[in-house]
Write a structure and sequence with these properties.
Aldehyde Dehydrogenase, Chain A, domain 2; 2 domains
Length: 425
């Protein structure tokens, strides 16, 4: 069955999944968690083969970390599913109920988007998160993971699909695209696919947007910033920066650029340099930074880089306004943070920085659906239209208007013999 045929089947079965009870969907998630736990050995074996093949091909170590799927990631994935089960049903939530006239009632309630195609990076745990979020929200999904983890993805998909169907979900609840060539075909399935979520490089996401008529949601880069204000607590700033850079460097919410106020730069930057060196982080900076700590000097183009590794850019700025201008100009509108004890500076930063996630005094690594209590995420959206930020259950539903009448006709309201009274119920 090719991708178009799979998409057509999913579109046909999407109303069945949309109308399934929360009990059935949660039962499916419970079966999936149990099946993953019981099939750890084949998952790890497939991942071992993927890792060996990736190593032989010379893939960077930063990427290798994403590919690995061991006991820790399996455990956290199962915990994520259990957390997802505990969340309330996002479907059929009434946000408006209004009587337009006697016996004529209008309601607005949430419903699934329908069929969602997700093209994601070579990270096996992403397949688990995305598929379970889609199922919980009543959405059918077509999954295309990175080719570097094709063996792991295949085993995981088969386990999840079998458990979901055995729990009572329709066979068209999910499908997998395994070859890169299938992406082009997926982009033509605008009759059957309602939304595409690509996760990857800027050029890849742009390619998807430019070559399909399907609505596309997502983000390309993760150039995240931390601005160290003149009123910052140094110990706090140092620990937050190190965590944001080194806790997991190969992800989109790791900090890539640190901006330091010039009033504290002479004192703070040497301390930061020492901490980053101890953590194995390579430093690049503007001319002022290079003079202070002797790091590799970069020009303005160097601040456009997403390292996804233990490497960082440093810059001295003269004011909070210069920091904000830099972030809004060079950032990817993903996650940006200020370290300060000044509430006025915090509020100003929050209002002026044009990003989906804006923080004060905490690591950028918190930008994650699971950490927000969303039950993981299908991705992070940096666009202005909702959903924005980590896209969890609430971001995977839309709404529909439902009207019930008693033989009401429009004509009397047009000729003036009847009028609406609009009473909110």
């Amino acid at each position: 069955m090719n991708i178009t045929e799979k998409a057509k089947l999913l579109k046909k079965d999407s109303p069945k999944l949309a109308s399934s009870s929360i009990e059935t969907r949660n039962k499916a998630l419970s079966h999936i968690a149990e099946a993953l736990k019981n099939n750890a050995a084949p998952i790890f074996e497939a991942n071992k083969q993927d890792m060996e093949a990736a190593e032989q091909s010379g893939i960077a170590q930063a990427v290798m970390k994403r590919l690995k799927f061991g006991e820790d990631k399996l455990r956290s994935s199962i915990e994520g599913i259990e957390s997802l089960i505990s969340l309330p049903d996002p479907l059929n939530i009434v946000s408006l109920k209004r009587q337009l006239d006697e016996g004529l009632t209008l309601t607005r309630s949430t419903c699934p988007i329908g069929v969602i195609g997700v093209i994601f990076e070579a990270r096996p745990d992403a397949l688990i998160q995305i598929s379970t979020l889609c199922l919980k929200s009543g959405n059918c999904c077509i999954l295309k993971g990175g080719s570097e983890t094709k063996r792991t993805n295949k085993v995981l998909f088969d386990i999840i699909f079998k458990a979901a169907v055995e729990a009572g979900l329709p066979e068209g609840c999910m499908a997998q695209a395994e070859e890169r060539s299938e992406i082009s075909e997926l982009l033509t399935c605008d009759k059957y696919v309602d939304l595409l979520i690509p996760r990857g490089s800027n050029s890849f996401v742009r390619y998807i947007m430019d070559n399909t008529r399907i609505t596309v949601m997502g983000h390309a880069d993760g150039i995240c910033h931390i601005y160290v204000d003149k009123q910052a607590d140094f110990d706090m700033a140092l620990s937050v920066i190190v965590d944001a850079k080194t806790q997991y460097s190969a992800v989109c919410n790791a900090v890539e650029t640190v901006l330091v106020n010039s009033e504290i730069a002479d004192t703070f930057l040497p301390l930061l340099s020492e901490r980053l060196k101890d953590a194995g982080v390579r430093m690049n900076g503007d001319s002022k930074v290079a003079q202070l700590i002797g790091c590799n000097e970069i020009d303005e183009n160097g601040f456009k880089k997403e390292y996804l590794d233990k490497e960082i850019s440093l810059k001295v700025v003269d004011s909070i306004d210069e920091a904000i201008e830099h972030i809004n100009s060079y950032g990817s509108h993903h996650t940006d943070c200020i370290i300060t004890s000044d509430d006025n500076a915090k509020d100003y930063f929050f209002n002026m920085v044009d990003s989906a996630n804006v923080y004060c005094n905490c690591s950028t690594r918190f930008a994650d659906g699971y950490r927000y209590g969303f039950g993981a995420e299908v991705g992070i959206s940096t666009g202005k239209m909702p959903p924005r930020g980590p896209v969890g259950l609430e971001g995977l539903v839309t709404y529909k208007y439902k009207m019930t009448g008693e033989g009401h006709l429009v004509a009397p309201y047009c000729d003036g013999s009847k009028s609406f009274h609009f009473i909110n119920l």
